[in-house]
Design the sequence.
């Protein structure tokens, strides 16, 4: 192989590796605490995932994915008149230094078209997709425990700081 081709190939590989690294880090170390997924039963096609997110420099949660469901979205529940409505939202702002709680009855992650029931105690891989103020995207991979947090808090093994 020609030496100049080899050098160009190595330079291209290094550039691509650097670009890939830009997408693997969460913006400004988004912290995830008290994360869990609600248990489902046979025949149930959807469930919710909940957590507390803190982004020291601010960010926006723009999506979620999981192999456990055919569709995963960021959702909001809010009252419209006398009716509680749930809808997908294109993103959720995480103001700098403030904790945003994804909880039942509010913002949450909706997992739909479940591939199988999610049994209590199981672990579900979930990837959060973020965007920072400059539009740079990144992901954060988590393993969420199925069940409910004991006394309102997740077990220490399920707290994440990235």
Sequence:
């Amino acid at each position: 192989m020609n030496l100049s081709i080899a050098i160009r190939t190595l330079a291209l590989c290094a550039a691509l590796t650097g670009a890939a690294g830009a997408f693997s880090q969460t913006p400004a170390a988004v912290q995830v605490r008290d994360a869990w997924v609600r248990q489902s039963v046979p025949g149930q096609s959807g469930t919710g995932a909940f957590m507390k997110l803190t982004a020291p420099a601010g960010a926006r949660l723009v999506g979620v994915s999981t192999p456990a469901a055919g569709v995963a979205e960021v959702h909001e529940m809010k009252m419209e008149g006398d009716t509680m409505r749930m809808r997908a939202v294109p993103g959720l702002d995480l103001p700098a230094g403030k904790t945003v709680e994804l909880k039942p009855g509010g913002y949450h992650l909706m997992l739909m078209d479940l591939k199988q029931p999610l049994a209590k105690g199981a672990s579900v891989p979930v990837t959060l997709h973020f965007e920072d103020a400059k539009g740079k995207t990144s992901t954060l991979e988590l393993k969420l425990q199925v069940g409910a947090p004991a006394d309102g808090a997740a077990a220490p093994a399920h707290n994440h700081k990235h």
